[in-house]
From TrEMBL:
Stored SUPFAM superfamilies: RibA-like
Any single Pfam family the record assigns to this protein: GTP_cyclohydro2
Catalyzed reactions per annotation: GTP + 4 H2O = 2,5-diamino-6-hydroxy-4-(5-phosphoribosylamino)-pyrimidine + formate + 2 phosphate + 3 H(+)
Keyword Nucleotide-binding: yes
Name of this protein: GTP cyclohydrolase-2
Cofactor binding note from Swiss-Prot or TrEMBL: Binds 1 zinc ion per subunit.
UniProt-listed InterPro entries: GTP_cyclohydro_II (IPR032677), RibA (IPR000926), RibA-like_sf (IPR036144)
PANTHER family listed in its UniProt record: GTP CYCLOHYDROLASE II DOMAIN-CONTAINING PROTEIN, GTP CYCLOHYDROLASE II-RELATED
Pathway: Cofactor biosynthesis; riboflavin biosynthesis; 5-amino-6-(D-ribitylamino)uracil from GTP: step 1/4
Active site: 145 (proton acceptor), 147 (nucleophile)
UniProt organism field: Anaeromyxobacter dehalogenans (strain ATCC BAA-258 / DSM 21875 / 2CP-1)
GO MF term list: 3,4-dihydroxy-2-butanone-4-phosphate synthase activity; GTP binding; GTP cyclohydrolase II activity; zinc ion binding
Metal-binding among keywords: yes
Amino acid sequence: MSNLVAVAGRKGRGAHEASAATIDLYAEAPLPTERGLFRAVVFRERRTGVEHVAMVMGDVAGESVAVRVHSECLTSEVLGSLKCDCRAQLDRALDLIAARGRGALLYLRQEGRGIGLGNKIRAYALQAQGHDTYEANRLLGFPDDLRRYDVAAEMLRLLGVRSVELITNNPQKLSGLAEAGVPVRGRIQLPSPANPFNVEYLRVKRERTGHLIQTDDDGTARTA
Ligand SMILES: Nc1nc2c(ncn2[C@@H]2O[C@H](COP(=O)(O)OP(=O)(O)OP(=O)(O)O)[C@@H](O)[C@H]2O)c(=O)[nH]1
Ligand SMILES: [Zn+2]
């Protein structure tokens, strides 16, 4: 039995010891990547069958682990869309974990902040008519953000992670994860590269939801 599965066997800590499991550790394997050797660990939601994957490097069963909780964005990460900053954030987070030699990226299948791919494209259609990213969600009958962080918290517990340094600019992720029972020891800033197609999206994130995106003097997101 591998270390990870052994760790999974001792899940359940503190306030969450009694909470019923909603995901299972389904499969894991070494995954050589352009950044070095990771382990891909797949978790499956019991109720829906949705699969999430953790990309793990080094020994993460411990404290102050660099963790990225990343939401799927097919349009940016696979298709090269310039309307958001997701692929750059995914790349930079994996770079950072590889540079440290220890950490985990949780790739959560909650496309479009939880509304799904088709609805995100419907939202993009409304954005093409002049609505911002959050107005478009509301016109479709969705809240700004449908994401929950309890699955991420459960994945971290199953991996043996006891506390995290969270790689994010999103204050709601910091509080969401803490509320789900994960001790957050710190935050690691991510660059949000601006381009002509996402500059408005980045501005709205900063102003509406308080994203901690670093800006240049003229107010645009830093391209570092
Ligand atoms: N509904 C909707 N979802 C979007 C839109 N643009 C990007 N997304 C989704 O938003 C998610 C990324 O969320 P963001 O709010 O950009 O960033 P974040 O991950 O919460 O914050 P960071 O941790 O700082 O990156 C992905 O699931 C994208 O598919 C949009 O215009 N509408
Ligand atoms: Zn995106």
